[in-house]
Amino acid sequence: MLKSLVILSVGVLAVCQALQSCEDCLKSGNHFCADTKLCNSPVCLNSITHIINCPRAPNATYDDNEARTKWLPLFGASATGPIQAQKCFDNNWPTMKLSKHILVNCSDPSPILPLTTCAMLTAVDTTQKVLVMSFRATNTGTQLEEEILNYFVAKKPFFDSGYIFEFFYDAYVALWKGGLEQEMRNLKYKYPDYEVWVTGHSLGAALASVGASWVVKAGLFKPDNIKLLTAGQPRTGDYAYSLWHQNTFAYSFRVVHAHDIVPHVPFQYELVDHDKMYHHRTEIWYNNDMSVGSTYHVCQEADGFYCSSQNADLSWNDHTHYFNTDLDGYGNQGCPKKQ
Q1: Rounded to 5 degrees, what angle do the CA atoms 206, 242, 273 make?
Q2: What class is the 55-326 domain?
Q3: What pLDDT was estimated at residue 31?
Q4: Where on the phi/psi map is residue 126: left (φ > 0), alpha (ψ -120 to 50), or beta?
Q5: Which residues, other chains included, contact 178 with Cβ-Cβ below 8 Å and sequence gap of 6+?
Q6: Domain boundaries, the chain
Q7: Which tens digits make up the pLDDT trace of 208-241?
């Protein structure tokens, strides 16, 4: 009888351990199986070893139509000058009005390379009570070269929440000191209860991640009032930054188009990258041409070998095409409305 009770107790304990949540499983020093959804599953093809990748549904709902009709024109507008930016709004979001266009020198300090600039805009919709910060993508080959070289150089602390790449940090600070801080303080004073929508594509996506995080750290806005949506975002910060970000923002989506190469840069397990940079949640992966009606995956892991990370063949063309739109020239054309 005693032997049977012991066997039963061991069996119950094993079942309880197996049914642990992913977070509890990892905290106990075990691995969680993404396939079986069990702790320490003896047979497992996809093990989760970092809490940041524990499966979790987002706390907000991703809206494909809203992404096409509102978010896409926002990062299209940031890729051009003030006149065409307002045309982007007029063609797609008529109640949105440009507030400020900021252009700053964000070059690498090397005297050898030509000057490069970073740009962003703010906008206001008093009807829908929305403020916008939208950041421009990489716009020259020299700037792209600077970003890539910086991946192997340095990172800077982001307040008390991990590290981000030095290039992204310095570029954002240049914009912040170049007019963005005063602009956001003025907008906050005039419209204290408005939502803040933050967005960008490519380099602009990384700066949008930093920007949304920065205004929270600066005490200007509460995370519940911020919506972040990026497209083609490169890895921006380390594990601590990414974990803080996803535990702070309910509405934070990283849209990834099929085989876009940039969300995989820098490669997470690069030998020289001892900090192991990570994406924060939540990836929205379109494994298609992103035309209207296309399916997409709401990825429950932050940055493991799931969703877009399954792709070994990567593409620059997918990086420049989002929502079935060629982003090269889209903003300069006034973001023509899709029929």
Answers
A1: 80
A2: alpha beta
A3: 87
A4: alpha
A5: 102, 103, 104
A6: 2-48, 55-326
A7: 999 999 999 999 999 999 999 999 999 999 999 9
